[in-house]
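Problem 12. The chain below contains 430 residues. Write out its predicted structure in token notation.
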Amino acid sequence: MIQYVTIHPDNPQERLLQKAVAVVRQGGVIALPTDSSYALGCHLGDKAAVERIRSLRGVDDRHHLTLMCRDLSQIGQFARVDNARYRLLKATTPGSYTFILEGTRELPRRVLHPKRKTIGLRIPAHTVTLALLEALGEPLLTSTLILAGDEDRLTEGWEIRDRLDGQLELILDGGHCGIEPTTVVDLTGALPVLIRAGLGALAPLGWTKEARMEPAMIQTIAIAALPIIFAITLHEAAHGYAARHFGDPTAWQAGRITANPLKHIDLVGTILVPAIILLVSGNSILFGWAKPVPVDFGRLRHPKSDMLWVAAAGPGANLAMLLLWAAVLKLTWLLPINFFSLPMSVMAKFGMSINIALMVLNLFPLPPLDGGRIAVSLLPRDAAWQFAKLERFGFPILLLLLFTGILGSLLTPVMRLVGGLVEIIFQFPS
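Solution.
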């Protein structure tokens, strides 16, 4: 027989909570009230109980289950949460929200989405549920109580008993819960994506009622476009400015010493290649290029020594933009979460990432990269002449290193070091 427990919705009795805890720890499946509707719940580590919930719901392993947590520290244990996501979670929990996040190794693989390795997480705003989680001392794996073949949620304890007698171990009847679902937000991409508008208000997320449920790919392209374009084009403009300063007016005469990105954009190198790498390949090194600024090194006042400064100007521009985007990120963290600060913080992080990547990549000592030209400038004349002969093979070698992952393994530690130093300088929270 199913255990039917009527519990006080505002002052839940400890002995009844302990009865539910015992059932969960023994592998049972329970029905419990939440701030949106009733839910099915079981122990996270019990495979048979998880499969029973999926069977009752009529869903497979591609349907996200939800891990109910009592506080943010538990969410941080079971999901990957950076500073921006933590601020958003802090502003919306406890509440009627379910967040899709990438799970950590603390979670059994069977409870994660099989392809995305994600799971739903929430901190409910219901006294009984929070008290149960406190008594249990660990999260509870749950799913909304909609039975297979039904369209509506079960909203009353007696109704759940009539429909599921013999299929559950215990029902916690905390009174009517309502039928409106939680607001579901995907936090796995660059920007939050609204999956379902529900009981949780959209304003704390920086959205209006007309918030669009745009695909994550479209949002990623939109938010990353400006930092990527300026990181690549201003890099090239800096080369032209330095060349003019040291005696070569070629770039200035061609109208290339300008911050106008339209003068530098290469359709393939500035837009298509970075977008493909960013969204498809998952490569740790973001790669791209603009139209090369024409530099006649023979017209420099001291060609060999001045070459160093002309080459270093590009990475120097990326360093300046890195610090600028870091300042923007610091500013957005001082503002409340809204429709302005949230996308700006994500844009600032993209700006930091792309400028770190381009600065470190271009300093790699391989002609025709800036690092290769710096090396030519610093080497003795005969060695510099021999090293410069690599330039005709430089681009194929670079692509080979990039797509085999060798370049990433060489440069990623350096990029992390640079990023860590910037975090220390701007006192970003760890």
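Discussion. Strands lie at 3-6, 30-32, 39-42, 66-68, 97-102, 118-122, 140-144, 170-173, 183-186, 193-196. Students who got a different answer should revisit the alignment rule from Section 12.3.
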